[in-house]
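Posting for a labmate who doesn't have an account.
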Amino acid sequence: MNIKSDIKDPKYVNRYYVTEVDSFEDSIYCHHAIIGENFITEHVHNKDQFLYTEGGVVFLKTAEKSYFLPARHYIWIPAGIRHSIHPSTPDVVMRNLYFPKYDTDQEFYKKISIYPVDDLLNKLIMFTNRWNGNIFPVEEPKYSLAKAFKLLLPEVSQHELPLALPYPNNQKLKDIVTFLESRIEENVSFKTLSQKFNISERTLARLFQKELNMSFIQYYTILRMLTALKLLLDEKLSVNEVALKVGYSSLPTFSNTFNKVIGVRPSEYVKQKQLLI
């Protein structure tokens, strides 16, 4: 499928996310477009945002974390969260729905999260392509259908993925994280890290937990899997080559870890990606 064929307006006009999304408090705003920019500057809106992308890797950054949005996944961004969007290419297609708050909203809608998109949700996303701009409550049945899209999300989104890494504030930990990123193919051990940065293993473990609210192994595993996702999407490498580049000498171990974090095996992920090209 040509992901650009159903985009009515390929230009990113008037920075709609600043000028139009919040123009009417009770409307649902729909926008499908090629990004057309190297990044979307930091902004905030008063509506919840559903964001699904096609055609490349997208990083979404907040003050606290960097989120990685791979193919066949969506991110839910609650109202009031300042964020910027950084695509791997301006040709990435964004499919957005912005929803007002409802009295019936569940806890699901109150935090930023990433979920895989199954076949049902994918069809529903493609259905929304017929909508553009504001959808008002008086526009029935269109408004009820759009609202139902939001109400269905908790039912079809059962497996939240930890595709985000927090930013450390501690300078030593910043240096450690930078080192891990630069040596991702080496499978750096906790002991090696402790010795290189002249810090006891006990203190280092506490630093990860205090600063990042996760253990070293949790952080390092997610870092390696996010890097693997980027390599699979951008570098056209085989699964075996990607495993080696993120420090796994055992392909089964890499595949099992990938499946645990991402929800599918890397070979299946590659097949899904190819279906979207």
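Reply:
Got it, the structure tokens are right above this. Residues 16-156 form a domain with the Jelly Rolls fold (CATH 2.60.120.280).
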